[in-house]
Design a protein that fits this description.
By secondary structure, the chain is of the alpha/beta class. Helix content is 34%, strand content 24%. It binds MU-OXO-diiron.
Length: 411
């Protein structure tokens, strides 16, 4: 095996790549895999920062041994207890029975609950420090980024932030580990998909964490997933991205997500998209909810400012996949979006009422009247669909509302 990468003086990467698992959390597709990152600080005292998914524990321990040989590990710093990072703790204890586990008061309960561990556990408070010799660790409690016990660990002398899930991304580390050894742009879409699906519900705690860290000089970010960020511009970009996404700010662009059994509702989606494009919107993504994976739709909804949702009535309710999407968006407290909706039915309209309820329960701004189609397209319905597309375009491109009947270009 190759020697684990020395990221900075005394600091080694001992994480692993997972190209086997199909679904992260048994929910989210991993077309490009995922890495579980762990790190060792080889100082007078040896510290391990997090572990890896238990399926990769053999490889992980081989890497640890390559760095430390038969020297003992003094501390395991547990930044996050989700099993993709804590899964090898039990095996770690069987190899290093004298290791001291370092976490916060929430970590302690989870160590006991998940693994029955109650001994050799040290509790740290917010901002507390721990000297390893040449290096000093400082702990920043960042609850709910992504679980209650989540914390970040800062290596003061080298300005390295071990950020737990924050600034992480799906995608394996192919060849390199550092951003300077990889092509960071390749991770951008997967980083937004990771944030929006895994962390997206916790925008407010992410904002709190970012404010807490605002004055901390960061030279390197070691997340639990994806590249180690070392280059100034990449660090600025991922921090800015997290700041923007957690404030629910988005780029100018439009997502149209629709369900359609026989293509009638899809015709409305096409018309609306066509009209938005005619009026200048260029970033338009149509998602057939029966085909697109919901994680891709959520990624795009977090990326773009405009959202239009369409659903036929199905068993006197929304189309099931549309219902799932709306539920997922509400679960993530989606806000700050221009919104429109359209529906269709054969004998009794129910979908538009539930789409209207979504508007009432969410912090979205309705840009135009909904379009409701009975059975098939009529000229007046086409006109309304075009008005919805145009109104959305005007909102996205100029912020100006378009009143019904007004046909002038809005830009
Ligand atoms: Fe990668 Fe929240 O665990």
């Amino acid at each position: 095996m190759y020697k684990p990468l020395e990221i900075a003086k005394d600091l080694y990467y001992v994480g692993v790549n997972d190209r086997t698992k199909h679904l992260f959390e048994n929910l989210w597709p991993l077309p490009y895999g995922v890495s579980y990152n762990a790190y060792i600080i080889d100082d007078e005292k040896k510290a391990l920062i997090d572990t890896v998914d238990v399926c990769y524990s053999d490889l992980f321990f081989q890497k640890v041994t390559r760095v430390l040989g038969d020297k003992p590990i003094d501390y395991l710093i547990v930044n996050h207890m989700e099993p993709d990072h804590s899964g090898s703790i039990g095996l770690l204890l069987s190899r290093y029975p004298n290791i001291q586990i370092v976490g916060n008061k929430h970590t302690v309960k989870m160590l006991k609950g998940y693994y029955g561990i109650t001994q050799h556990v040290g509790v740290v408070e917010d901002m507390q420090t721990l000297s390893l010799g040449r290096n000093t660790l400082q702990f920043y409690l960042t609850p709910m980024v992504h679980w209650p016990e989540t914390m970040m660990t800062y290596l003061q002398e080298q300005q390295v932030l071990f950020s737990a899930d924050a600034f992480g991304t799906f995608g394996t580390l192919d060849g390199g580990v550092l951003d300077s050894q990889l092509i960071p742009e390749r991770y951008r879409g997967e980083m937004i998909r990771y944030y929006s699906n895994i962390v997206g519900k916790f925008g407010s705690p992410v904002q709190t964490a970012l404010k807490k860290l605002a004055e901390v000089p960061i030279g390197t970010i070691c997340s639990t997933h994806g590249p180690v960020w070392t280059e100034k511009e990449n660090i600025a970009e991922v921090v800015t991205l997290y700041d923007r996404l957690s404030r629910y700010e988005a780029e100018s662009g439009l997502v149209i997500a629709y369900g359609s059994m026989y293509g009638h509702t899809e015709q409305l989606a096409e018309l609306i998209a066509n009209e938005a494009a005619t009026h200048g919107v260029r970033n338009i993504v149509l998602h057939n909810v029966s085909k697109s994976h919901i994680s891709d739709i959520i990624r795009d909804v977090f990326t773009y400012k405009g959202l239009i949702v369409g659903s036929p009535t199905y068993n006197n309710k929304l189309y099931p996949e549309v219902e799932s999407l709306l539920s997922a968006l509400q679960n993530r407290y989606l806000k700050n979006r221009f919104f429109g909706y359209f529906g269709s039915f054969t004998w009794a309209d129910a979908s538009s009422k539930q789409l209207a309820a979504f508007v009432n329960e969410s912090e979205v701004e309705l840009v135009s009247d909904p379009v409701i189609m009975k059975q098939a397209m009529l000229e007046e319905i086409e006109e309304k669909a075009r008005m919805l597309g145009k109104s959305m375009a005007c909102k996205l491109l100029s912020g100006a509302a378009v009143s019904p009947g007004r046909n002038t270009d809005c830009h």
